[in-house]
């Protein structure tokens, strides 16, 4: 176009289509409206402190070392430790990218796999960021049910039914946010069998893989080669604000793309965080993770029992992570119930935030002391019964 005198331009700003309709999740919307001295059953953030050995190491690194840029994909020593976590993949340094938390790894994975018009299978219920990431990638989210009447357990027929010729990728998360359920090895083998020879990629969200209350959950990558693992230390070592995550895969073209995208998005993850995170695979770290598992297991059992005895309501028994789904269908609409709780200084998340299958439930996080959780249930009882 030739610009001449009198040329009229449309100066009104219009959001790109990939951004239109995106809103903060209901998780954040309810949390941001919390009244002072509220009991938090909402955010999935560990209340346990970051272990002392990590804090001391970060302080030492900050004071004693020069902390400039690392290479885009991260410190070689840290990538080596991450790669060693997945011996079945036989991956090396170039197959791991250290990211600013698992959220960046997840978003990068979607952007590097999904193209305009591609369909992506997402769990229903599932973490709402998946839906947003698919839309930002200009793909179309398609949902496979984790049936509420089966306590949100995986069902291979629901998964199979959702696949179409347009399916480019599928997401699994184990242990699950929001349900606390774990995909069994049989579940993952069934998925691998269904996806064999389809060319469909799996994005396996394993951020809660160190928080389990029985047998350690298996990685989908053990059974299906076209898997991109998204994980990190945020949940297992109470490092949410440190922003240390990673993507790992034997799919070299995808990992190269993620590395390039990561470099343009962030350059690199904090050098101080990366250096401290080298201690995330020590005996001290293993002991801290085991302690966290024991604490969350006890808290989950305490809270599920309390909902039954004090409210007469069923809550799912979590197998991992730190969530339970509280069935409030007998009391009315989950958003209205969450609103009542919020006004009485208890933050919960309505199940509809995670998908239609969770409508009528509240996602409850048990990242709290038993004393605070008992007070939270007491406050809920005041407005619900």
Please tell me about this protein's structure.
By secondary structure, the protein is α/β, with parallel strands linked by helices. It folds into 2 domains: 26-50 and 284-384, Aspartate Aminotransferase, domain 1 (Alpha-Beta Complex); 67-279, Aspartate Aminotransferase, domain 2 (3-Layer(aba) Sandwich). 37% of the residues lie in helices and 14% in strands. The protein contains 12 helices and 12 strands. The chain has helices at 26-32, 52-64, 76-84, 101-113, 129-136, 156-162, 185-195, 252-266, 271-277, 283-311, 334-343, 370-384, and strands spanning 39-40, 96-99, 119-124, 140-145, 167-173, 201-205, 227-232, 245-248, 323-327, 346-347, 349-350, 361-365. The strands form 3 sheets. Strands 2-8-7-6-5-3-4 form a 7-stranded mixed β-sheet, with helices on both faces. It has a 3-stranded antiparallel β-sheet with strand order 9-12-11. Strands 1-10 form a two-stranded parallel sheet. α7 (185-195) links the parallel β5 and β6. α2 packs across α9 and α10 packs parallel to α12. It is globular and about 65 Å long. It starts with 25 loop residues before the first helix and ends with a helix. The mean pLDDT is 96.
Which key features would you list for this structure?
globular, Aspartate Aminotransferase, domain 1, single chain, Aspartate Aminotransferase, domain 2, 385 residues, 12 strands, three-stranded antiparallel sheet, alpha/beta, seven-stranded mixed sheet
């Amino acid at each position: 176009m030739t610009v001449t005198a009198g040329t009229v331009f449309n100066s009104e700003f219009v959001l790109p289509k990939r951004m239109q309709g995106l809103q903060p999740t209901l998780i954040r919307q309810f949390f941001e409206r919390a009244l002072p001295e509220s009991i938090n059953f909402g955010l999935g953030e560990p209340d346990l402190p970051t272990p002392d050995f990590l804090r001391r190491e970060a302080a030492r690194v900050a004071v004693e070392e020069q902390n400039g840029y690392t290479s885009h994909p991260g410190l070689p020593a840290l990538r080596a430790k991450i790669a060693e976590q997945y011996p079945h993949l036989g991956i090396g340094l170039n197959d791991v990218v250290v990211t600013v938390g698992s959220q960046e790894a997840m978003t990068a994975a979607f952007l590097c796999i999904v193209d305009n018009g591609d369909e992506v299978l997402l769990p229903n219920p599932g973490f709402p960021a998946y839906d947003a990431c698919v839309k930002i990638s200009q793909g179309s989210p398609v949902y496979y049910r984790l049936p509420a009447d089966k306590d949100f357990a995986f069902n291979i027929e629901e998964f199979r039914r959702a696949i179409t010729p347009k399916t480019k990728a599928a997401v699994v998360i184990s242990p699950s946010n929001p349900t606390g359920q774990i995909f069994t090895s049989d579940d993952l083998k069934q998925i691998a069998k269904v996806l064999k020879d389809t060319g469909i990629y799996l994005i396996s969200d394993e951020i809660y893989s160190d928080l389990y209350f029985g047998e350690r959950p298996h990685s989908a990558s053990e059974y299906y080669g076209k898997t991109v693992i998204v994980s990190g230390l945020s949940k297992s070592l109470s490092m949410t604000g440190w922003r240390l995550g990673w993507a790992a895969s034997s799919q070299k073209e995808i990992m190269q793309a993620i590395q390039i995208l990561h470099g343009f998005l962030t350059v690199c993850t904090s050098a101080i965080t990366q250096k401290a995170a080298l201690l995330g695979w020590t005996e001290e770290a293993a002991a801290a993770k085991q302690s966290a598992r024991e604490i969350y297991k006890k808290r989950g059992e305490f809270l599920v029992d309390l909902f039954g005895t004090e409210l007469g309501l069923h809550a799912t028994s979590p197998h991992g992570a730190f969530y339970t789904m509280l069935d409030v269908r007998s009391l009315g609409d989950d958003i209205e119930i969450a609103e009542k709780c919020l006004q009485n200084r208890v933050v919960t998340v309505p199940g509809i935030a995670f998908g239609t299958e969770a409508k009528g439930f509240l996602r409850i996080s048990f990242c709290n002391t038993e004393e605070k959780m008992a007070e939270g249930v007491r406050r809920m009882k005041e407005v619900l019964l």
